[in-house]
Structure formats: structure tokens, C-alpha cells
Amino acid sequence: MTEPFHWTERRIAHLVTLIVAGAVVILDVVLLIVYLTKLGPALAPYPAYRVLIPAGILAVFAFALRRFLVQLRLFREDR
User: Fold this and answer.
1) Sequence-separated contacts (24+) of 53-58 with Cβ below 8 Å
2) What angle do CA 35, 39, 40 make, to 5 degrees?
3) pTM for this one?
4) Cα pseudo-dihedral 16, 17, 19, 25, rounded to 10
5) pLDDT (tens digit, 9 = 90+) per residue, 37-67?
6) Hey, where are the domains in the chain?
């Protein structure tokens, strides 16, 4: 039998972090789309930037997605 849902300080902190991480994930996807459609072609003369900027965006995306999933698990378990 599962315990009833209770709002605790820890659960509220996990919820806030979950919302922030989710916003970062969504905005990172938007940033990547804007980069690929608008800025990517303008950086054609600079091949290093054409690789490093998307790599940085994807690194932030991976970190934020991992943080989102961990906070979701912790929110559900209330740990």
C-alpha cells in the first residue's frame, strides 16, 4: 500500500528544481532550432563555431535533462 501524498519542504524544493530544469530543457531545444535555422548558415566561414556552439547547446541540454529526470524521481519518491 502506498502512502498518501503530502506536501513537504523537500517535495516543494524538488518541484521548483523540476520546473526550472524543465524550462531549461525546453528553451535549449528552442535555442538549438533557432541556431540551426538562422545562425548556422551565417557561420559558414567559421567551421569551429559551427561545431562548438551546437556541442555546447547539446551539453547543457543533456545536463538539464538528466537533472529533470532525477528531480522527477525524487519528487515522486519524496526523498
Assistant:
1) 57/28, 57/31, 57/32, 58/32
2) 80
3) 0.80
4) 170
5) 888 788 878 888 888 989 999 999 999 999 9
6) 9-77
